[in-house]
Amino acid sequence: MDPWSIILTILMFLLSFFYFFSNSKTKKKLPPGPFTFPFVGNLQLLRNKSLVDIEHTIQKLLSKYGPIITLKIGTATSIFISSHSLAYQALIRQGAICSSVSNFLWSFSTQSSQKAID
Prior knowledge:
Blueprint: H1 3-22, H2 25-28, H3 43-46, H4 51-65, E1 68-73, E2 76-81, H5 84-93, H6 95-99, E3 104-108, H7 110-117
Parallel strand pairs: 2-3
Antiparallel strand pairs: 1-2
């Protein structure tokens, strides 16, 4: 192995280590969610699945972590809210706080939306 390969490998390891510890959920005060891997986030939970399977996976995570969860998909942070009352509180009552966070994607569970419509 040549010296440049060793240096590049060590550099990638150090960057991954720094990224992992500098982006912890406790610093950002995000809702709970599953463990995220550096750079890929939670893609291991969603890869090679249909939309129905992804919905079931998210429903399982909601039952495990509560009505609001955080998933990192690649470098994007997604927050899933399954309750209409919590979505109303987050987007209407505290909309000024949520609107200042431009890189979050607010998503709602389709299953709970259908229950509220029926």
